[in-house]
Amino acid sequence: MNVLHGVWSASGELCGWAEDPALAATAPRRRGRLPRKPPAQPHPFASPSDRLREIAMVVVATPLVEALVDKAETGELVLLLPSLASGPLVSPELVHAAEALAERGVDAGRHT
């Protein structure tokens, strides 16, 4: 299971991303002292753009969505996300899904 997110950018573009339980559950550790204003880092469990396209087509397979996905461009957007010093928090939906799958004996990393 993947969790889809979307937000409108300041320039009015719809930006989307997905979290994948098969990817690292925590951000890689940073070495040394944290800078006063740390630079933006890639989201540690964000799906690659090609996987996001696949997910969007499965979730909302309509001609309109197909046209939007065909026009979509890969890019970056800097966001402030709920985080700890170790990195962004996993979406609650992803945590609950992984727990539910684990209760049934299914590895969340293999069930995407």
Task: Map the helices and strands.
Layout: E1 3-8, E2 14-19, H1 49-59, H2 63-71, E3 83-84, E4 87-88, H3 92-103
Antiparallel strand pairs: 1-2, 3-4
DSSP, total strands: 4
Poorly predicted regions are: none
> How much helicity do the residues have?
25-40%
Q: What is the tally of helical segments? A: 3
Helices and strands, in order, run as EEHHEEH
Question: What is the topology, as strand order, of the major beta sheet?
Answer: 1-2
Give the end-to-end Cα distance, rounded to a whole number of Å: 5 Å
Question: How many domains make up the coordinates?
Answer: 1
Give a summary of the structure in a few sentences.
With 112 residues, this protein is of the alpha+beta class. It has helices at residues 49-59, 63-71, 92-103, and strands at residues 3-8, 14-19, 83-84, 87-88. The chain has one domain (3-20, 43-110).
Overall description:
The structure is a single chain. The protein is α+β, with helices and mostly antiparallel strands and 112 residues long. It has one domain. It contains three helices and four strands; from the N terminus they run ββααββα. The protein has helices at residues 49-59, 63-71, 92-103; strands at 3-8, 14-19, 83-84, 87-88. Strands 1-2 form a two-stranded antiparallel sheet. A two-stranded antiparallel sheet has the order 3-4. Strand 1 and strand 2 (14-19) form a beta hairpin. The protein is globular and about 50 Å long.
